[in-house]
Amino acid sequence: MQLEKAVVLDIDETIVDTSARRQAAWRIVLGLEIPLEELEMLGSSSIAKRYGGLNYQSVYLKFWSILLCHEPEGFKLLKLDKPQPYAVEVVSSWSRRYRIIYLTGRTVNMEAATAEELRFMGFPVDPGSLYMAPDLEQYLENPGGIRRILLEEITDKYDVEIIVDDNPIFFDIYRDLCVPTRIGLLRPRFRIDDYRHASIIADNWRSLYSIICR
């Protein structure tokens, strides 16, 4: 039986801009206003080490507990998210030809809230289209391993033609699982060379219009 063709999308920083939510989470954890430019250039681990001192590990865990809504404040902060410019338009165009699947490090406790958020922003969300990390601890310990397991589940059900992600550390997984079009959305803190396993590197969603009707 021929598998249904699919596009797989990462969520955070790929189709959804979470910078304001991350800034608010750090404000709760540290009592400091971390500039957005610094948030974009440094990962959460680096920020925890820079500002958390000897307690940086607990600071790091507290940040992720809020960001992934394992604490009540996290759900309240979701209203700060916004869609990346042109992402809704491109994804909606792809949805006419492909099943849209979301592969995310967000944990399953966020499933209903994430589906509601994506629909509110205008992204197509079907039942069963969210593939999420099982829990906070597993994801923080082994994000690559969790992502590989989830993508293997997806490729068992769908013929994945396109995958889009902002984080270059996952692209060897996408190559290993034979996804033909691997699109890396370039972020300031990474270099182009970091996306060496991507087949396409894009600066933004607007530049992806050219492959909508491939």
Describe this structure in words.
This protein is of the alpha/beta class. The protein folds into 2 domains: 4-17 and 82-211, 3-Layer(aba) Sandwich (Rossmann fold); 19-80. Helix content is 43%, strand content 18%. It contains 10 helices and 8 strands. It has helices spanning 19-30, 36-41, 44-52, 56-67, 72-77, 87-94, 111-121, 136-141, 143-157, 171-176, and strands at 4-9, 16-17, 82-83, 99-107, 130-133, 158-165, 181-185, 200-202. The protein has a 6-stranded parallel β-sheet, sandwiched between helices. A two-stranded antiparallel sheet has the order 2-3. The longest helix has 15 residues, at 143-157. The chain is globular, with a radius of gyration of 17 Å. The mean pLDDT is 95.
What does this entry show, briefly?
The protein has 214 residues and is α/β, with parallel strands linked by helices. It has ten helices and eight strands. It has two domains: 4-17 and 82-211, 3-Layer(aba) Sandwich (Rossmann fold), CATH 3.40.50; 19-80.
Which radius of gyration do the C-alpha atoms yield? 17 Å
Task: Give average pLDDT, whole number.
Answer: 95
Classify the fold: give the CATH topology of the largest domain: Rossmann fold
Element-by-element helix/strand order: EEHHHHHEHEHEHHEHEE
**What topology, given as strand order, has the largest sheet?**
5-4-1-6-7-8
Query: For the record, what CATH class of the largest domain applies?
Result: Alpha Beta
What is the CATH architecture descriptor of the largest domain? 3-Layer(aba) Sandwich
Helix content: 40-55%
Structural class: alpha/beta
- Major sheet description: 6 strands, parallel
How much strand? 15-25%
